[in-house]
Amino acid sequence: MTDPRIQRWADVLVNYSLGIKKGDLLQIKSTELANPLIKEVYRLALQKGANPYVTYFGEGLTEIFFEQASKEQLEYLTPIEKYEIEKIDHYLYIIAEYNRKGLSNFDPKKLSLRRKATGKLLERRLDRAAKGELHWSLTAYPDNAQAQDAEMSLNDFTEFIYAAGYLNEKDPIKKWLEIAKEQHRLIKDLSKIKKITIKTKGTDLSLSVQGRKWISCEGHENFPDGEVFTTPLEDSVEGVITYGFPCVYQGREVNDVMLRFKKGEVVEVQASKGLDYLKSMIAMDPGAKRIGEFAFGTNYGITRHIKNILFDEKIGGTIHLALGSCYPETGGKNKSSLHWDMICDMRKDAEVRADGKVIYKNGKFTI
User: Fold this and answer.
1) Would you give the DSSP letter of residue 214?
2) What is the pLDDT of residue 180?
3) Mean pLDDT over each residue of the chain, to the nearest integer
4) Does residue 138 sit in the same domain as residue 232?
5) Closest CA to 269 of 281, 257, 287
6) Same domain (yes/no): 220, 131
7) pLDDT in tens, 40-75
8) HSE-up of residue 282 (Cα within 13 Å, Cβ side)
9) How far is CA 86 from CA 25, 107, 325, 348, in A?
10) Does 207 lie in the same domain as 137?
11) Which of 61, 206, 217, 239 has its CA 20 to 30 A from that of 97?
């Protein structure tokens, strides 16, 4: 018997997150580990009159690719991938992993080269999304690999996901509509801001958001969700920021990251673990040295860091700044094949000022 929460989850994704309609073309991408959710989404999409199809990738194939691929193969994008990104109306990616550390021992330069190639697809997806031509959503299905990273049992991790998405409630969509209403109220105040300063242990950073649009993340592009974000002016970021939480990207962990900015660019980096990997990612392209996103996490149902960015960036009481590509709908200009969200805990001895006035203290908004 299917867990009714799986059915609610599929309902949220199809009818709320993506807003699928009759005749729409939906690509679902994941591994077979997510089959229970894939089946329910597939079933509902068909009932809506849409045209869903599933793209699976198998265990160990990514590791084989990076082991065997030449430079030319690392840079190659298939005509099918290029065609898909232009034709699909909806894209659903379900994280379901066999091994989250499978790429840990590969040359960072190879990973960077591939990321730079696939970044062209990311850029096109974001462009189409900004124009309203494509709707996409990312969610995570419980598996042993993610549970181990989170230092939880599979059962506990499963319950964690359901709680974070409010899937234990009879009507999760109603709850997400309430969250959306509150975040839109918050955005009205944030939209008046010109300059932001951030201060906490190891962090004294300033940036300008004048003229940029704030976006409410309320369960559409990510599920679960809970953040409000914008893009700083590209040359405005000044000062230093230190990340107490591990910064994880492509399964690689970098600890105790410190970034120093001048005129919007990273000019100094430090890390106690993974420094070479961090440097190689930042050197990927010119845009990787700049901030593409500044955000507040607003999901207070997520209280702990689990080394999974889908959840970690939403933690209520944190901020995150992403190195690399921006979301064009904010008015940002920065382009990169990198988008690396890094989380800063603001729940103790921390404040954010807007044009000199405290608007956020110890993890809570004061406006």
Assistant:
1) P
2) 96
3) 95
4) no
5) 257
6) no
7) 999 999 999 999 999 999 999 999 999 999 999 999
8) 23
9) 11, 32, 20, 45
10) no
11) 217
**Total domain count for the chain?**
2
Q: At what angle do helices 35-47 and 4-11 cross, to 10 degrees?
A: 50
CA 307 from centre of chain: 12
Token pair, residue 7, equals 């059915």
Rounded to whole angstroms, the Cα distance separating 198 from 206 reads 6
Closest CA to 315 of 224, 253, 230: 224
Beta strands across the sheet bearing 51-56: 51-56, 25-30, 90-95, 135-140, 222-223
- 176: in domain: no
Q: How many CB atoms lie within 10 A of CB 275?
A: 15
pLDDT of residue 332: 96
- 54 lies in the same domain as 195: no
Q: Which amino acid is at 236?
A: S
DSSP annotation string for 291-329? EEEEEEE-BTT--S--S-HHHHTTBTTEEEEEEEPPPGG
**For residues 100 and 86, what is the distance between their CA atoms, to the nearest angstrom?**
30
Question: Residue 348, exposed/middle/buried by CB under 10 A (0-12, 13-18, 19+)?
Answer: exposed
Query: 137 has which bridge partners?
Result: 92
Asked if residue 149 lies in contact with residue 307, where contact means CB atoms within 8 angstroms, the answer is yes
Q: Which residue type sits at 285? A: D
Residue 171 to residue 140: CA distance in whole angstroms: 20
Q: What are phi and psi of 209, to 5 degrees?
A: -120, 15
**At which residue do the structure tokens 């994280």 appear?**
95
Q: Which long-range contacts (CB under 8 A, 24 or more apart) does 251-259 make?
A: 251/100, 251/101, 251/102, 251/103, 251/104, 252/103, 252/104, 252/108, 252/111, 252/277, 253/307, 254/278, 257/342, 258/202, 259/323
Amino acid at residue number 66? F
In this structure, which amino acid lies at residue 38? I
